[in-house]
Specification:
There is one protein chain. By secondary structure, the chain is mostly helical. The protein has a domain at about 60-190: Tetracycline Repressor, domain 2. The chain is built from eight helices and no strands. It has helices at about 5-20, 30-35, 50-65, 80-95, 95-105, 110-130, 140-160, 170-190. Helix 1 crosses helix 3 and helix 4 (about 80-95) crosses helix 6. The longest helix has 24 residues, at about 140-160. The chain starts with 6 loop residues before the first helix and ends in a 14-residue tail after the last helix.
């Protein structure tokens, strides 16, 4: 369970982390520097860590997925809805590309932080599945979240190779792996495509 229960503290820590990562080598970032950048006394972050700041940043990107949900087309196939929702996350990350890449380079030097990366992807997957209308709890939901977490991680690796503002590699990876999940696991995974009206059997 996170030690920072106050949403305002978490938002400020996320903003501070992104700001510092854009201007300071991540390995030099400390909790004191994060608190200073957030304009808060370090005592308010008792029990936190630099790793907690990474969680706050990822949470902020996750929350961006839920923005403007009235624009989500529920007539789309599940795969298309998952694709759209996950791409919203990458769109939220893009303005902070330099900072995110700097933080990831810092994580590459810390096995503990690297181990947490997949769990952050799974947390994102659970949120995406819930928004898309799929079960994200129980054994089936956990399996879906684990699988989708891997897909998100692969898309994120592709995103690193995209040029700024170009999501070509990201979209190609995400589309390929969602289609593969649809083909391999179909209805069980909840990724099956909806049949087109013209393909539906006659009444």
């Amino acid at each position: 369970m996170s030690v920072l229960l106050d949403p305002a503290l978490r938002r400020d820590l996320a903003r501070a982390a992104l700001s510092l990562a854009a201007s300071t080598p991540w390995r030099e970032v400390t909790l004191v520097k994060l608190a200073d950048s957030a304009n808060r006394p370090v005592s308010e972050y008792y029990g936190a860590s630099v790793g907690e700041a990474l969680d706050c940043v990822e949470e902020a990107f996750d929350r961006a997925i839920g923005d403007s949900l009235d624009k989500l087309d529920n007539s789309q196939s599940v795969r298309d809805r998952l694709f759209e929702l996950i791409m919203r996350r990458f769109e939220a990350m893009e303005p902070h590309r330099a900072a995110v890449l700097a933080m990831e380079q810092g994580q590459d030097r810390d096995p503990t932080l690297m181990a947490g990366a997949h769990q952050r992807h799974v947390r994102c997957a659970r949120w995406v599945l819930a928004i898309a209308g799929l079960e994200a709890d129980g054994m089936t939901g956990q399996a879906r979240a684990q699988g989708l977490g891997v897909i998100i991680g692969q898309a994120r690796a592709a995103w690193r190779g995209d040029t700024a503002g170009d999501f070509a590699k990201t979209m190609a990876s995400l589309d390929k792996n969602l289609r593969r999940a649809e083909e391999m696991f179909g209805r069980w995974a909840g990724f099956e495509a909806k049949p087109k009206a013209e393909d539906a059997p006659p009444p």
